[in-house]
Design brief:
150 residues, alpha/beta, Glutaredoxin, 5 strands, 19% strand, globular
Length: 150
């Protein structure tokens, strides 16, 4: 499957409607982005079951700011609509393939337990140990989280 262009209009629907989505945040003036582009495109051909999206950070300024992307290229991985990986830097072909394999084999039940535990610990620390009501919205987690090995 070829890469698809992600915009503010389709980003959320693509991420939430596909089991695995990789996102390449790039800029036209960025040399490492130009190096990474064919590596990313080859991955999209090798793994048609995974949606490979690209965000042009110059055209999608608001989306880039909302995602807190400040370095290019940045690769994010979403599984079941949840951010499971985020890191800046161009990856070599073998490193991207390793990332894809780790995402494919990720135990999402364990990931959710760890995320809930991290979120609960942060909430207790922020409130001085007092219990707080859970509200809907973005999880109060750092933009880069995942499992050991990534």
């Amino acid at each position: 499957m070829p890469t698809i262009t992600l915009t503010q209009d389709n980003f959320d629907s693509v991420v939430t409607s596909h089991p695995i989505v990789l996102v390449d945040w790039w800029a036209g003036w960025c040399g490492p982005c130009q190096y990474f582009a064919p590596v990313y495109e080859a991955s999209s051909q090798r793994h048609p079951q995974i949606v490979h999206g690209k965000v042009d950070t110059e055209a999608e300024v608001a989306l880039t700011a909302a995602a807190q992307v400040t370095q290019y290229p940045t690769v994010m991985a979403f599984r079941d609509g949840m951010l499971v990986y985020s890191a800046a830097g161009a990856l070599a072909s073998d490193a991207l393939e390793d990332l894809v394999q780790q995402i494919l084999w990720l135990d999402m039940d364990q990931f959710r337990r760890e995320l809930a535990q991290q979120t609960g610990t942060r909430q207790l620390a922020a409130t001085g140990g007092a219990a707080t009501a859970h509200r809907a919205g973005l999880a109060p987690t750092a933009p880069r989280y995942g499992w050991p090995g990534l």
